[in-house]
Amino acid sequence: xxxEIPMDRHMYRLxxxxxxxxxxxxxxxxxxxxxxxxxxxxxxxxxxxINCEIWEDRPLSVWRYxxxxxxxxxxxxxxxxxxxxxxxxxLGREIGLPHLYAKHEGMNxxxxxxxxxxxxxxxxxxxxxxxxxxxASTGNTSASLAAYAAKAGIPAVxxxxxxxxALGKVAQALMHGAKVISIRGNFDRALEMVQExxxxxxxxxxxxxxxFRLEGQKTIGFEALDQLGLVPDRFVLPVGNAGNISxxxxxxxxxxxxxxxxxxxxxxxxxxxGSSPVVRAIRAGLPEVIPETKxxxxxxxxxxxxxxxxxxxxxxxxxTGGTAESVxxxxxxxxxxxxxxxxxxxxxxxxxxxxxxxxxxxxxGIIDPSERIVCVVTGHLLKDPETVIKQCEPPVExxxxxxxxLSALHYY
Length: 412
Ligand code: F0G
Fold this sequence. Notes:
Blueprint: E1 12-16, E2 22-23, E3 39-43, H1 52-57, E4 85-87, H2 89-95, E5 100-104, H3 114-127, E6 133-136, H4 140-152, E7 156-161, H5 167-175, E8 179-183, H6 187-201, E9 204-205, H7 211-217, H8 219-228, E10 234-238, H9 243-257, E11 266-272, H10 277-284, H11 310-319, E12 324-327, H12 329-342, H13 349-363, E13 373-377, H14 385-391, H15 402-408
Parallel strand pairs: 5-13, 6-7, 6-9, 7-8, 10-11, 10-13, 11-12
Antiparallel strand pairs: 1-2, 1-3, 4-5
Helix pairs in contact: 3-4, 3-7, 4-5, 7-9, 8-9, 9-11, 12-13
Bound molecules: ligand F0G.
C-alpha cells in the first residue's frame, strides 16, 4: 500500500486490527477512523535490534524488555513488574495438576497488574505532550493511574461506578490525589463517558482501549516465560474488559515472530458467571460478543458487560486453541480462600477466578493433567478487605489475662 504510514524512528506505527489502516505513532487516536475498530502497536520486528542476552542481564521488570515497548523518553516508573511466579504445589496436587503456577501481579507497586500498563501509558502521555490523564475503572486502573500521575506530577481524573468499587482501590485513588468521580451507572457507562470527555476536552485516555497501555501489560507473559525457562502450555487470565489476555497474547506473538519461541500457549479466559459475554461468544462461536446490560458479580473488578477489547481477546483465544469458562461467585470465593490458606497467596476475588476456572476445566476434562499452566492472579487481597472480612470469623476478643488466652486457644 503506497499510503501506508512508514515506521518512524521508534520502529512502530498504529494499525487497525480490523481493516489494517495505519496511523502515525504520535497521533492521539484510540480507534480506527475508517472502521471504528481497535488499534494495535505494530513494530517493524525485522528491523528491531534486540539481543535476548541483554534482557537476561537486566532485572526482571517491565523495562527489561524496553526494545519491545514504545517509550523513548526516560519512563515514569515505580519499579513495576518482577512479580513472583509461584508453583502451586499443594493446590495443584488437589486439583490434579503437578505443573500449576500463579504469577502474582498483586505484588506490583499499587497492588495490581495495571501498573505495568500505567508505567508505559503515563510515560506515553508525557512523550505525546499530554498534561492530564483520565480513565474509567472498576477500581484497580484508577488506583494505578492515580499513583503514576502523581509520580509524573500531572493531574488524573477517574470515573468509578458508584458503590461498586472495592474499598482499598477507592482509598488509593483518593490518597494519590486523583479527581475521583462516582457515577450513578455501571463501568460500561463510565467508560463511554470518559471516552467522550477525553475526545472533547483533550485529556489522555488510559483505559485498555489505549493500545500503548497494553504494551506494558504484555510483559507479564515475557516475565513468566523467563521465570519458567520455557513456554507453558496454557496461560489463564481473569477477563473483564479483555485487555490483559489480549496483551499477553500479542507479546507472545511478537516473541514467536522474532524466533525466540516456537509455539504459543493456549490462551484461556475466565469470567464471572453473572458477567460473561466473552464466554458466551466462545461457546456459541459468535464473531463478536453480545454485551450484557446488567453484569453482576462479587468480583467487582471484572463486573463488565461490554468488554472493549473483546475483538482482540476472541482472536487470542481462538487462534491458540484456548477456551473461555465462567465460574460462580461461590467458586471464586472458595478459590480465594484456598489460595490464601493452602498457598499463602493473598488475592482479590477477580484474581481467584483464573485458578477457579482451571479447577473447573480440569474437572470437565478440558485441561489435561500433564499441562504446564500459568494462572495470572491480578490483584492483591488487601484491595477488597470488605469481601475478605465477610468470609472470615471475626477475631476472638478476650480479657487481657493469660487464663483467658489459654481458654480461647483451648489449651487446658
Ligand atoms: N483482575 C483484576 C484485579 C482487574 O482489576 C481487572 C480489570 C481484571 C482482572 C480484568 O482485566 O479488563 O484486562 O480483562 N480491571 C479494570 C479496572 C477493568 O478498571 O481496574 P481486563
